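Re: [ENG-882] Designed sequences occasionally contain unexpected residues at chain ends

Forwarding the minimal case from QA. Structure tokens:
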């Protein structure tokens, strides 16, 4: 009898251990795990982070591949270097007929014109000739030559030179376009759409500082321009997008006097602030607005943001003063 009791006890212990093992394995499969991948794209690095369960590993990998494929497709469409891209052809021939002008390029140019008008010319995708001028070594010339060449080039700048109708897209007065101020934000939005279509519940996409989040609560640090290892502030976002434009990372000249954000109204580097960060529901909007208000300067830029519902911004003035839109502190901690 005692032997039977002992055997029964051992049997029950064994069953209990098996049950505990099954519970632990099931729990480990269901606890969210981070899946992350970084690739070089759009002249920068893009990182996709997704939280999911271990048993979804293969599906998540496929979703990440699909999102990167979409980003790469947009790069090919909007690149002014790729001879096969629509923008390259538009710049080269100053015209796309109705078969060549896809709805996507029409949308991006329409949005660009909208922000050109909203920002009173501070955001301008026809800035390409000015960028090429500075890339070509204008910073080496004396001020008189710089002013002369800039004045000549400004005749080609202005979104009034973009004509769109049912027959196609036409560029006037030698204009050419550069979608660098809006394309990365658009790529983030399109990649986020793919993640949502695949029922991803928590994710972050970052393309060179243009970021968009799905679910969760994500902490985004704003680097101090004087010390990139330190943060001036931090933001918490869930289903928002964040974009920062700054004058402290990319320059045309070795002495770092001419940064890459050119004011299309003057032809010179914008000098009204050090950085501009925008939070919005759409990364396309955040991207275009960050460039717009950076060029406009801190005070005028914040005034514009306060006039737009659902958008917030933080700007650092040229003297280091921090300016915030009315609701920005709701995201800070």
């Amino acid at each position: 009898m005692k032997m039977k009791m002992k055997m029964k006890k051992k049997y029950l212990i064994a069953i209990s251990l098996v049950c505990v093992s099954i519970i632990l394995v099931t729990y480990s499969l269901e606890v969210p795990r981070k899946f992350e991948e970084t690739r070089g794209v759009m002249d920068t690095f893009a990182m996709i982070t997704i939280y999911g369960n271990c048993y979804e590993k293969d599906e998540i990998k496929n979703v990440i591949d699909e999102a990167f494929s979409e980003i790469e497709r947009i790069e090919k469409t909007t690149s002014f270097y790729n001879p096969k891209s629509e923008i390259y052809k538009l710049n080269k021939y100053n015209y796309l007929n109705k078969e060549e002008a896809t709805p996507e390029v029409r949308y991006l140019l329409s949005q660009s014109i909208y922000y050109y008008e909203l920002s009173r010319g501070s955001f301008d995708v026809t800035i390409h000739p000015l960028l090429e001028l500075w890339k070509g070594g204008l910073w080496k010339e004396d001020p008189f030559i710089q002013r002369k060449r800039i004045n000549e080039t400004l005749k080609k700048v202005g979104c009034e030179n973009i004509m769109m109708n049912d027959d196609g897209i036409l560029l006037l007065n030698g204009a050419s376009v550069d979608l660098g101020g809006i394309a990365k934000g658009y790529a983030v939005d399109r990649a986020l759409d793919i993640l949502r279509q695949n029922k991803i519940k928590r994710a972050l996409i970052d393309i060179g500082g243009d970021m968009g989040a799905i679910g969760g609560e994500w902490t985004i640090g704003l680097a101090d321009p004087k010390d990139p290892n330190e943060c001036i502030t931090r933001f918490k976002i869930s289903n928002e997008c964040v974009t920062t434009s700054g004058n402290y990372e990319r320059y045309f000249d070795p002495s770092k006097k001419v940064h890459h954000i050119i004011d299309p109204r003057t032809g010179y580097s914008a000098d009204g602030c050090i950085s501009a960060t925008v939070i919005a529901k759409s990364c396309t909007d955040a991207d275009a607005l960050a460039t717009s208000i950076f060029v406009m300067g801190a005070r005028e830029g914040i005034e514009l943001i306060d006039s737009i519902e659902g958008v917030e911004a933080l700007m650092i003035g040229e003297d280091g003063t921090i300016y915030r839109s009315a609701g920005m502190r709701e995201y800070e901690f």
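QA comment: On inspection the terminal residues look reasonable. Residues 2-29 have pLDDT under 50 and may be disordered. Proposing we downgrade this to a documentation issue.
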